[in-house]
Give the backbone structure.
Amino acid sequence: MPTILAAGSAPGESGVFVFSLRFRGGLHFSATPQRHLIWFGSPVRIDGRIAGRTLRHEAPAGSLAIRPAGIDFRCRCRRSIDALILSIAPGQLALAAAESSALEAQLNERLSGYDQALLDLARALALESAKDYPNGPLYWNEVSSSFIGSLVTRHTSEFESRARGRLGKDVLGRLRDYVVAHPR
């Protein structure tokens, strides 16, 4: 059973939850999550599997793993590990993608990688949660929006084909600009 170091989400609709966990003596995890999971871990040897692909490697401190919603994955390590896990509502990622004109962006699964800027944002959210949100919900929402925006920018791909009758990025951008300029 993991030790929870920090967990939570500030009031509001950020769609982001943070979990800072310590697994003593190792872990075995198998799931098909309903939310996107973004993992950062301490240095450890990991055996991982996601969507039929496997990887056995020494993960360095701060290593990144991305588990999109609806995709099965497993991971196992035999030593203690500290993990920083962010859980993101798929709708929030889709909204952020649409707002940045990355229509139908899909989060790319990732067994191993590194993204220092994303790790820094995750740490800021974990610290904010651990201290019971001293900077308030607006700060939380700004940092979580930056986190999701970074995911969209660097860790998604778009569908290659577009169905007939769908709006292009330029048209959607003009519609969004019109709605923002003419609120009712």
Observations:
- Helices lie at 90-99, 116-130, 136-155, 169-181.
- DSSP finds four helices and twelve strands in the chain.
- Residues 100 and 164 are 22 Å apart (CA to CA).
